[in-house]
Amino acid sequence: MEKKVAVLAVNPVNGAGLFQYLEAFFENGIPYKTFAVAETTQIKTNSGISLQTDDVVANLRGNEDAYDALVFACGDAMPKFSENAGKPEYQDLLAVIKTFGDKGKLLIGHCVGGLLFDITGIAAGKRLALHPFVKGAVKGAIGTDAPFVIDRNFYTAQTETTLHLLLQELLKVLK
Questions:
Q1: What is the pLDDT along the chain (175 residues), one digit of tens a residue?
Q2: Judging by DSSP bridges, how do beta strands 69-73 and 106-110 pair with one another?
Q3: Helices (DSSP H) in the chain: which residue ranges?
Q4: Are 76 and 11 spatial neighbours (Cβ–Cβ below 8 Å)?
């Protein structure tokens, strides 16, 4: 049976990465729902394109069992995270990631996605592909220079330019 995916999109989100996930899921019949890490479902890409998500991350919190996998679609994640870490939607983001990890569900991300997995403490000892700028910031995970890495339930790509390589493998487990 195909797995259902929750896709987290920060505001602003990297459209190049987000659209690769969504197109791959749509074209392969993988059910998914998008959740804005924002107060409303209206977000933008980091190039300024307006997007409407299905829901907000606050409504995913407590409903994680409805999904088999979680995607963190990167954007201006770390600058925005440092600016907004105390806001409820960012606390919800971390709580949702931690819950998915604690339940052993599939965790998927590119760029700094692995860093957020590390920050929540769920990636200790796991190998992760990370953007070169954040590789040194991980504490418990093992940052790599690989274009993509699969380590048990963690699926990570270094950047949106290597995401297509990861997606080929990810689709095999989601179908």
A1: 789 999 999 999 999 999 999 999 999 999 999 999 999 999 999 899 999 999 999 999 999 999 999 999 886 666 667 788 889 999 999 999 999 999 999 999 999 999 999 999 999 999 999 999 888 899 999 999 999 999 999 999 999 999 999 999 999 999 9
A2: parallel
A3: 15-27, 57-60, 77-84, 88-102, 113-119, 163-174
A4: no
